Each structure stands twice: as structure tokens, then as C-alpha cells.
């Protein structure tokens, strides 16, 4: 029997890596989709390529969509600094990239319709999501409905898209424990918002990652 295809949004970070290994473990023929979106550094895309090789999946596309042209985030606007993280702060951090997951999932739907991959995996979590509204289940549900209304495959051929957000109610600790079982190549995942050779250790993302590995009871293989 032909295997079902899935697209995994792969940033090169920890969450998307676990999502990719999970999709593979569920028997999907996996295609990774990454974006060169104007992020501060290209390390995570290099990591994404390495992860694709170590997961031995079917294909990888890197789409160029320069959202840095209009800025609005310290991840894409070089005139802004990445602030030191306070992972317990409630306000939306400057690292929020305007409508990023809305754009990424739309592109995934386009690729999915073209290659007949109707399952899309995204590694978002609304538990430790830094207040990013596009990481919540309500958003995922809404995007899924939109994609199923805006594609010929779904409307006329009955090929319904499903957006899988397997970690939406999980913590990073849960993800790391699951990822260790799945054999995720954590050593080649990149979480730091800065891209300076070694993780900075002080940004939001570095702090969340360090805390999660500690709570999961593993040392971080990337450090
Ligand atoms: Zn960092």
C-alpha cells in the first residue's frame, strides 16, 4: 500500500525536529518544508538540512519568503536587538514574527495540494508558547477549516487536509522525553534566537530549552 504523504514544517528547532521524527514514526512519507523568511541567521536552516539527512526522510524544500522586508520582529529586523529573555513574563516578546504560522501553513497547503500531501505537521505548543497567538489550537483549527475551503482538492475531490499539532497541549519537557524515545537528533537542533556559533544561553528560547532539558532529566546534546 502506498504510504500517506505528510508535510512537516521544519525550522531546525527542537519542536519541529520532534514533529518530523513523530510523523516518520507514524508511517508517513515525510516531506520537510523550511523557510528562509529573513530570520537573523542561517544556522537554523543549516541545522534543518542536517536533520533531514539524519531522519532519512523523502524530501526537503526551503522556500524563500523575506518577511524581514517589513520587519516588525527582533528576529527579522536587524535594527532591533534580541532582548534578554524572561520566560515568566506575560507580554508578547519582540521575537514574535507577524503572522508567521499563518503564512507558513498557507504555503504548506499549497505544496500539499500540489504533491498530494494532506497531512501537515507543525510543532507548536500553547503551553510554553511565549504568548504567540499563532501557536494555539484555536488558530490551528481555524487554519484547517480555511485550507479545506480554499483548495480544490478539499472542496471538489474530498481530500480533506488535517493539521497535526501533536504538542499543542504538551510542554517542552514532554517533547524532549518523547523525542529521546524516537531517536531525534537533538544535537543538530538549534533554538537560540541569535546565530553566533554557540547558543547565547540568555535569550527566551535558550532559557526555555535549558530548563526543559533539566526537567526532563537529560543533558542537552547540542551544548
Ligand atoms: Zn539564545
UniProtKB/TrEMBL annotation:
Enzyme class label: ligase
Keywords: Ligase
EC numbers, comma separated: 6.3.4.20
Domain of life per record: Bacteria
Keyword Ligase in record: yes
Protein name stated in the entry: 7-cyano-7-deazaguanine synthase QueC
Organism of provenance: Halosquirtibacter laminarini
Amino acid at each position: 500500500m502506498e504510504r500517506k504523504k505528510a508535510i512537516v514544517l521544519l525550522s531546525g528547532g527542537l519542536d519541529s525536529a520532534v514533529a518530523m521524527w513523530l510523523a516518520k514514526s507514524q508511517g508517513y512519507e515525510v516531506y520537510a518544508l523550511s523557510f528562509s523568511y529573513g530570520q537573523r541567521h542561517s544556522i537554523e536552516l543549516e541545522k534543518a538540512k542536517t536533520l533531514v539527512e539524519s531522519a532519512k526522510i523523502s524530501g526537503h524544500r526551503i522556500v524563500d519568503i523575506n518577511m524581514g522586508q517589513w520587519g516588525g520582529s527582533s528576529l527579522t529586523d536587524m535594527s532591533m536587538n534580541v532582548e534578554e529573555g524572561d520566560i515568566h513574563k506575560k507580554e508578547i516578546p519582540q521575537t514574535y514574527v507577524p503572522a508567521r504560522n499563518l503564512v507558513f501553513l498557507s504555503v504548506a497547503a499549497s505544496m500539499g495540494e500540489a504533491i498530494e500531501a494532506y497531512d501537515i505537521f507543525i510543532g507548536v505548543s500553547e503551553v510554553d508558547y511565549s504568548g504567540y497567538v499563532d501557536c494555539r489550537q484555536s488558530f490551528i483549527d481555524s487554519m484547517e477549516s480555511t485550507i479545506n475551503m480554499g483548495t480544490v482538492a478539499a472542496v471538489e475531490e474530498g481530500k480533506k487536509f488535517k493539521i497535526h499539532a501533536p504538542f499543542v497541549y504538551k510542554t517542552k519537557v514532554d517533547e524532549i522525553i518523547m523525542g529521546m524515545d524516537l531517536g531525534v537528533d537533538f544535537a543538530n537542533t538549534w533554538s537560540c534566537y541569535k546565530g553566533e556559533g554557540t547558543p547565547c544561553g540568555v535569550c527566551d528560547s535558550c532559557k526555555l530549552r535549558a530548563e526543559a532539558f533539566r526537567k526532563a532529566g537529560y543533558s542537552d546534546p547540542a551544548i
